[in-house]
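This is your field. Please look over both lines of this record.
***
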Amino acid sequence: MRQRGGWLLCTTLLILSLFCLSVDARHHSNIPTRALRTSNIPSTQDLYHAAKMAYPPSQVVLDNGVVQLTFSNPGGEITGIKYHVIDNLLGNKAKQTAYWDVMWRGKLYGFQGTEFRVISATEDHVEISFINTYNPSFSNDQMIPLTVDKRYIIQRGRSGFYAYAIFQRDEGWPELAINDVRLVFKLQQDQFNYMAVSDTRKRFMPTADDRSLSQQLAYPEARLLSNATSNPLFYGEVDDKYQYSTEDEDGKVHGWISTKSSVGFWLITPSTEFRAGGPLKQDLTYHVGPTTMCVFSSSHYASKQLGLVFQQGEAWKKVYGPVFVYLNQAGLNSDPTTTLWDNAKEQMLEEVRSWPYNFTQCPDFPASNQRGSVLGYLQVNDWYINSTSLVPASSAYVGLAAPGEVGSWQTESKGYQFWTRADENGYFVIKDVRPGNYNLYAWVPGIVGDYKYEDEITIEPGSQITLQKLTYRPPRIGPTLWEIGIPDRSSAEFYIPDPYPALLNKLDNNNHSDESDKFRQYGIWGRFGELYPEHDLVYTVGVSDYRYDWFYAQVTRDTGKEMVGTTWQIQFELPKMAAPGD
């Protein structure tokens, strides 16, 4: 009985302590910060901290004992992120340091909230909203015809916070054309000095001051660093934000590390459903500053067709995110550049497994039980490859996107897209699809062309649609005479020259860079003119080897006076030609 009574007493004290922690945060002017620890696993003390709110003048403060966020009120910009030993992870408070923006009329346009709302507030979960509402009485020159609801979520014991935004247009509003949609964080330059975007692209980074002392190259983003850099190792390198871009399907986590404080700041994007242009679309991840961003929609590496263009009166709504801003810290005796990156990848996998989240208080973001799925089998019917049987569409990319023409998903940005890979036998499952109308699209690595299922697919909450065997018939009017490269939407198999030693970026300080990342190096397009100084590329079928004789990109040539287009030739023998009409 004595043992049982002790258990009851401990339980009672625990309940009382939790009760004391749950007092309305509005009655507190000082929000407690957590004790220091050397592990990223929340301590018992952290778990006992309730998620709280406070309202200093013109501010909103969220705190869960692990991380503390300070927002301007009602603007909704994050002005402070307190974590571990760093009072504010963000940069100069006099500038924008954490914000949403779009590219409108050639300039970046941010969204200052005009209304603050508490969406939900419990000890375990707080969600807040800052709304910028379009006023039709304003002229189209004064205010962008778009309402943006910025949402932030903090939870008990979580080492970070969630962010998402609801973009909306109502019927009758003026026409609109925007390009980039971004969530941007500018961090402390004297803290964050190391970035990681993949296992083969991670390195110590130059500072914004280093760039200010550098030489501009062919375009403003590319700078040749001088001998006045903060680190002698940077001297003679090229810094260029485009070198840190990544394909959306691979860009689920990237961030910065403070080796000074052993702290990591990571952007985790657990899904690509809200991004534009499909899984192979490349987007930016970093700027020197240090700046990190999540790009939801962009015409970078694409045409203006990928921009968001709305006609007069066109209504629209889309939820971008949620993404998870993850903060971690390394132990005293570990290498933060390895420990924090490895831990961030583990956290990314946890977020992917948890998608779609079930805790958002947004009717426009359906939970898993409000979504549907599509499964089926895709095969290829190409008599030239196999004259007697159909071939499984092994490793095919299969996706649902807005109804359109074959391949239209590549320029689609207004709706949602859901992609998966078929297994080696051509079977695929597309899970957690938002309700709506879609076409099913696919392409098969190694097979020319695009596939589109002829019928429109309607997803309803809880639906599970099983498609019968789907057959893709590649475009073919006769046997293949010759083929250069592999039809896999990549130029990795072609000749990619070595970068100029004087224009090199050491993408990985430990020289672990993947050879396939070589195409990201600045200036290598200029090698074409060295290889073909007098005439353009001529490829002879049966003699030339595309691994060495086919340049990875068709580029212009610098004549010394101007840049001119190039015309490539393919030469081949055709011993017999069919007569016209045959």
Remarks:
- Residues 2-21 form the longest helix (20 residues).
- The helical segments are 2-21, 44-48, 208-212, 336-354, 527-531, 546-549.
